[in-house]
Each structure stands twice: as structure tokens, then as C-alpha cells.
């Protein structure tokens, strides 16, 4: 009964999303990775650009990691992009031309866990696999009034049992999407729109007046605020960049030299300490550029920007590199550095750097 009512609601209210046009397994996979911790409206243009550039698995495997990261620039959580490329190469090496309907194969690929495998198998292939994401957890935690955290342990096991008992054997594709859609449009995290819910009369949390208290969640860590300083160092038509190591946050991305501020040093001193070991005795004067804000995970970074013009090029070692504007437009920039660059372009009229455009790179 629940699945029938939910499917009827879904057919009337489902959104027109580009990855729903054909349910191509490759497209479903890319969309699911992009949608992890990212809003749909933000994903759509990235998804469309990706499919224009890499319409299938074979073309994707021909790309370099740097090209992948550049296309991903602005979407965040860059390990997702690197895992996509690794997984694509593994699939082609195993002889697949697309993402296969094999749970064992999928679960061995980097970046694919239980949810993503279930989403691919059910949405792309219409196989009866559950796909339990945050929306699904919220809907079922309220529907069955689960009074314990459902992110792991007993609570998650209980919720998974409810999902499996409700999942139809012949229409898993639309059922899984209908639950996700309900969670995104109606059974939202705060102030759920219960009067619009097709499952209101079945919802145990609503009957008990507990809908605003479900799901029970573990207390989240608060937002950390940090201050940092970065510098745009240039000479004639060259800009100094540094490439991050492939591991960790922003792995493989390019950035301007920067460091975190601390109480015992002024911002300029922090930056000079970072850059002295790179530029040595080069002569330059730091000029204030302004501030931008950048966030990663639960950390908000207030980035204080400076600009300096060098009279001549100084030899630099890896991971530093002098790049020209035309090369800059092809490199994947870390988010804070991209914002600083745009601020610099906006304030530099005419441009201080030969060949640097006056619009966003």
C-alpha cells in the first residue's frame, strides 16, 4: 500500500532531471557521485558539462587527472572526481564498456559504497536493491518513528529492514527515487510539509507529534572559523602557483602560496614566512587585495589576500610553478585561490599581468 501510494505521488511530482532522461548506467553513476553532499541545483550544470566532455566510459578514461579536476572545479570534495577516474580505468581494464549490474564489482570500485551501488543497480537497471541516503533515512525514521540514531548500528539495521520490507520487487527504480523525492521536497529536515505528504496517515512520527524530532541524530561538530593569508605573486606575464599533494583535502589542486594566521604573527609575516623559502631574497612589496571566504567540510576560512609584483623571475622548485594566463585557465584551482584570482581580476583594470583577462577564468 505504501509503495503504491508513493509511486502515484512520484509520477505526479517528480522533477525533470537530466540523469532521469535515459537511466544510462554511466550517467546514473556520475550523477550519484556528484550529488553526494551537494545540492541538485548546483549539480545540474556540472553534470551537463561533464556529459558534453565525457559522454561515456571510454572517453573518460582518456582524460588526465588534472583535466578531471578542472572540470570538477567549484563542486568541492575533489576526491570524488579522482575516484571516478580510478574506477573508470578499472572498469575498462576489466573489459566493461559501461557500469555493470554487478554489486560485487561495484563495491570494489573506489568511491562506491553500499548506497551508490544500490542506486546504480536500482535506478539504472531497475533491480530490487535498496538505496538508503539521507533523504531515505529521514523519511523512514519518521514513517516508523524510529527513536534511535539511524546513521549506524541498531538504528540503521532497523531502518534497512523497514526499507527492504517496503521495496517492491518489480519497480525498485521508481520506488527508490520516489522516497528520495519525498525527502527532498516534502519530508524535509526542518519543518516538514506534512499536509502535502501522501503518507501522512501512515506516518507514525506524525501521529505522535514527533516529526520534528526524527530522525534522531548524533550531535554535529560546530563550524570552525579560521583565518588565513595568501599571496598572488607575479612577474610580467607569469603567476606563481603551488600544487598540493594528491592526498588529503584539495589533493592535486593548484593554489596561491598561503598559510593560517596565528596570534603571534601579523598576516604579512605569516605570508612572508611561507614565501621566503621559495623566492629567497627577491625584492617585492606586499599590497592588500582584500578578503574572501571559503569553506571546506565544517571549517570556514577567512582568507586575507595580498598581491606582489616581482622585478624578475626567480627559479622555483616543485611543487611551485610559474604559469601564464592561458595555462592558468586550464589548471584546477583550489576554491579560495579561485576566489582571490577573481577578486584580483576585478580590481586590476587594466590588468597588472599581461594576457590576464578581465572576466572570470
From TrEMBL:
Catalytic reaction annotation: Hydrolyzes free adenine bases from 7,8-dihydro-8-oxoguanine:adenine mismatched double-stranded DNA, leaving an apurinic site
Keyword vocabulary terms for this entry: 4Fe-4S, DNA damage, DNA repair, Glycosidase, Hydrolase, Iron, Iron-sulfur, Metal-binding
GO molecular function (one): oxidized purine DNA binding
Family annotation (Pfam families): HhH-GPD (PF00730), NUDIX_4 (PF14815)
PROSITE patterns per the UniProt record, alphabetical: ENDONUCLEASE_III_1, ENDONUCLEASE_III_2
Record-linked InterPro entries: A/G_AdeGlyc_MutY (IPR005760), DNA_glycosylase (IPR011257), Endonuclease-III-like_CS2 (IPR004036), Endonuclease3_FeS-loop_motif (IPR003651), Endouclease-III_FeS-bd_BS (IPR004035), HhH-GPD_domain (IPR003265), HhH_base_excis_C (IPR023170), MIG/MutY (IPR044298)
Cofactors: [4Fe-4S] cluster
PANTHER family the UniProt entry points to: ADENINE DNA GLYCOSYLASE (PTHR42944:SF1)
Family classification: Belongs to the Nth/MutY family.
Function: Adenine glycosylase active on G-A mispairs. MutY also corrects error-prone DNA synthesis past GO lesions which are due to the oxidatively damaged form of guanine: 7,8-dihydro-8-oxoguanine (8-oxo-dGTP).
Name of the protein: Adenine DNA glycosylase
Lineage: Bacteria, Thermotogati, Synergistota, Synergistia, Synergistales
